[in-house]
């Protein structure tokens, strides 16, 4: 059944029956008034003659700031708002308009002004909740009388939909109607914002008190990633006060670079284009200063290729233990012992010249240095032991020599060389990669903390991955990377590089959070302001249980919060796909996940199309044509492996089908017809998806991991899904 061209603001016109709402003309008038008020304000800001201050410099600054305001507001002229709220406070009724950007209509005045409140303000939240009462800041009781969605595009009102109306008996069902209209739209080449249709439970998760670490748990398509980005934007609002975050001081971590680039496209729409988006591995190797390091996942290779169950179990348990949060203290105890040993026999004695004073000597005995280092360990500095020890010795010198502030620069310069050489003797041999491996290869080093029992130490010393080759280049395995990062964090520091110093991130968002170890969480918590980590994940979708936490409690335990301890918030509905696609996905997921019963938005679509028993490339080409004939431009062909995608993209040429391959992390998704392996498709979504090789040979039915991959492949489509096999289709989807 070919899908009709789904409606979108672009192809809706006011002549639709939507304009039949009795207040449509009134709202139209109001919109014209708001646009005029905004235009007037933009003119005022752009008029450099008006923005004059006491002197030239102040005038230039004022004019620049005004121009910046004008530029920010101009972006929102075409859609000043998307909804309104009729509220009653203290016996007075008022209508508030809600948009993506706040606007204060100075000229219009408080009464008939065309003000717009921002979606991420406290008042804006009232548009999304289910509750009908609230306590305004000034006290008293506020009541919601009406919630109204206003579809606006290109300064035109397209549709008026009441979501709740006191006078019409309360809930109108309009919220679901608006949501379904939105979900019928075609996919784009980037993640979209959902500011206009945020659902109540998503709104609540997004607005969990700032300063509280949160873990958003939800099934595939429940909007976790989307909500994580919205929370980040919400964190930038001035109303968050001391918790307010700066875009450039935040970080988003996505599981691969293709997804990172796809998701980052939502940032400008949310008004936060400057947020860095990267992957945990890229961030880790960058911090280690080893950008060329190849990151492997040899445990995964072993789990997929080795049939010796005992060895597989050993590899799994060892990887789990490497990511255990206790490893931070294991590393800590080991390197502290190492540095204290290296300090033995060291002392410092230096002649210092200070003009106008007799020759001075600054000296530190081994015992004194030892005491300073213990103080540094106790302070647990963000900058790491090395920098903090240097600062401690310098502070000691300035205090002992009792020099003026002006003289201190010269004193520190004279101390610099001998101090660097002392630091070299104590810390130099500790590079994160070698030290982590030294620790993991020594029973003695592993036992220093007293945290690991003999069985655990033996497990870490074992090498179940022996048979899996290592690359020729310098490499690190994903399972050992967090231990290396722990060495780095404690010795050289961890956080956001600002010039030559490290500062904590204002806020960090971690996607696919079920695939990262508690140790990584402990390190991220260290690198970030307290309580400012948002993790998005689904324990049921875990592809890499050996790397991830066994439960969210293990993560909560290592995430301190300044405004409350870590909370797990669950999103219960899924939004991505039509009923037909959601049902097929649920069938696959139910084979490994008893909690697979997710509630999807009930949206009807095309039947799932099946193509089998023929020439593979010809069948895929036919599926692509069918998807396009059904009106879908963004079509993905999902393969099991990158090599299949490369081969098929060539073979498809013989069938007049051009599919762009996305087979490495360096490729970017730009829309159109693409062909990509399932590991790079995770997190992406397309109007139509075609699962290539959807058969039991490719996705081994007896292996849970393979069934999980089949689920990921089959759950990428919004509207149209095709399943292809040269032979019979996989029993789970046939
Ligand atoms: N409130 C909403 N309004 C409109 N669309 C929504 C809403 N919430 C989610 N969506 C849409 O649902 C789809 C899935 O969202 P998203 O990718 O954030 O989910 P996810 O939980 O991270 O999925 P996965 O686990 O598969 O990565 C996207 O197309 C998103 O735009």
What does this structure look like?
- Pfam families: UvrD_C_2.
- ATP binds at residues 218-225.
- InterPro entries: DNA_helicase_UvrD/REP, P-loop_NTPase, UvrD-like_ATP-bd, UvrD-like_helicase_C.
- The chain is α/β, with parallel strands linked by helices and 734 residues long.
- It folds into five domains: 9-185, no CATH class; 201-298 and 475-574, P-loop containing nucleotide triphosphate hydrolases (Rossmann fold), CATH 3.40.50; 304-335 and 431-461, no CATH class; 343-420, no CATH class; 579-725, 3-Layer(aba) Sandwich (Rossmann fold), CATH 3.40.50.300.
- It has 25 helices and 27 strands.
- Strands 1, 2, 3, 4, 5, 6 and 7 form a seven-stranded mixed sheet that branches. A six-stranded parallel sheet has the order 10-9-17-18-8-19.
- The radius of gyration is 30 Å and the shape is globular.
- The protein starts with 23 loop residues before the first helix and ends in a 9-residue tail after the last strand.
- The structure holds adenosine-5'-triphosphate.
- Adenosine-5'-triphosphate is lined by residues 179, 182-183, 192, 194, 197-199, 202, 218, 220-226, 538, 541, 575-576, 683, 685.
- The site of adenosine-5'-triphosphate has 23 residues, from helix 4 and helix 6.
């Amino acid at each position: 059944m070919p899908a009709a061209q789904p409606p979108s603001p672009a192809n809706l016109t006011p002549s639709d029956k939507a304009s039949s709402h009795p207040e449509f003309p009134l709202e139209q008038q109001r919109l014209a008034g708001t646009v005029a008020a905004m235009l007037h304000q933009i003119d005022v800001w752009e008029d450099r003659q008006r923005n004059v201050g006491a002197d030239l410099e102040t005038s230039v600054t004022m004019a620049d700031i005004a121009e910046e305001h004008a530029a920010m507001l101009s972006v929102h002229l075409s859609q000043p708002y998307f909804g309104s709220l009729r509220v009653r406070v203290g016996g007075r009724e008022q209508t508030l308009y809600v948009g993506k950007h706040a606007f204060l209509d100075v000229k219009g005045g408080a009464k008939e002004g065309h003000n717009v409140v921002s979606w991420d303000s406290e008042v804006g939240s009232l548009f999304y909740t289910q509750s009908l009462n609230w306590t305004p800041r000034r006290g008293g009781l506020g009541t919601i009388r009406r919630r109204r969605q206003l579809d606006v595009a290109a300064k035109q009102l397209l549709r008026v939909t009441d979501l709740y109306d006191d006078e019409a008996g309360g809930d109108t069902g309009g919220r679901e109607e608006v949501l379904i209209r939105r979900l019928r739209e075609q996919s784009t080449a980037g993640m979209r914002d959902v500011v206009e249709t945020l659902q109540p439970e998503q709104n609540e998760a997004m607005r969990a008190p700032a300063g509280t670490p949160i873990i958003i748990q939800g099934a595939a398509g429940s909007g976790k990633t989307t909500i994580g980005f919205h929370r980040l934007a919400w964190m930038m609002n001035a109303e968050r006060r001391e918790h307010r975050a700066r875009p450039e001081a935040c970080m988003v971590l996505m599981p691969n670079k293709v997804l990172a680039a796809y998701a980052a496209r939502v940032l400008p729409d949310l008004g936060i284009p400057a947020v860095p988006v990267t992957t945990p591995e890229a961030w880790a190797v960058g911090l280690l200063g080893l950008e060329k390091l190849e990151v492997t996942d040899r445990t995964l290779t072993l789990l997929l290729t080795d049939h010796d169950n005992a060895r597989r179990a050993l590899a799994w348990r060892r990887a789990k233990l490497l990511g255990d949060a206790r490893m931070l203290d294991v590393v800590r105890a080991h390197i502290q012992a190492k540095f204290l040993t290296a300090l033995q026999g060291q002392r410092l004695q230096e002649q210092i010249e200070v003009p106008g004073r007799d020759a001075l000597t600054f000296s530190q005995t081994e015992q004194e240095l030892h005491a300073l280092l213990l103080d540094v360990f106790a302070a647990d500095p963000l900058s790491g032991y090395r920098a903090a020890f240097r600062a401690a010795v310098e502070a000691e010198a300035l205090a002992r020599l009792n020099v003026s502030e002006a003289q201190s620069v010269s004193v520190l310069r004279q101390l610099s060389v001998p101090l660097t050489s002392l630091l070299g003797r104590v810390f130099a041999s500790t590079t994160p990669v070698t030290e982590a491996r030294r620790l993991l290869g020594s029973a003695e080093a592993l036992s220093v903390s007293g945290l690991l029992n003999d069985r655990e130490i033996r497990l870490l010393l074992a090498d179940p991955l022996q048979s899996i080759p290592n690359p020729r280049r310098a490499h690190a395995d994903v399972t050992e990377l967090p231990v290396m990062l722990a060495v780095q964090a404690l010795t050289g520091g961890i956080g956001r590089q600002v010039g030559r110093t490290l500062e904590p991130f204002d806020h960090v968002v971690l996607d696919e959070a079920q695939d990262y170890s508690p140790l990584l969480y402990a390190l991220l918590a260290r690198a970030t302001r307290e309580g400012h980590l948002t993790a998005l994940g689904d324990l049921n979708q875990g592809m890499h249980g050996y790397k991830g936490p066994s439960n969210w409690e293990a993560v909560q335990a290592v995430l301190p919060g300044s405004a409350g301890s870590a909370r797990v918030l669950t999103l219960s509905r899924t939004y991505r796909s039509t009923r037909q696609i959601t049902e097929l996905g649920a069938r696959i997921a139910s084979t490994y996940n008893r909690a697979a019963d997710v509630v999807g938005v009930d949206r009807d679509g095309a039947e799932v199309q099946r193509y089998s028993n023929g020439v593979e490339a010809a069948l895929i080409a036919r599926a692509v044509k069918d998807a396009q004939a059904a009106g879908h431009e963004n079509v993905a062909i999902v393969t099991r492996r990158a090599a299949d995608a490369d081969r098929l993209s060539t073979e498809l040429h013989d069938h007049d089908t051009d599919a762009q391959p996305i087979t490495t992390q360096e490729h970017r998704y730009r829309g159109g017809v693409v062909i990509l392996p399932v590991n790079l498709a995770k997190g992406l979504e397309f109007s139509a998806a075609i699962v290539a090789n959807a058969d039991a040979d490719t996705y081994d039915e007896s292996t849970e991991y393979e069934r999980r991959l089949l689920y990921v492949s089959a759950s990428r489509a919004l509207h149209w899904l095709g399943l292809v096999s040269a032979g019979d289709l996989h029993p789970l989807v046939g």
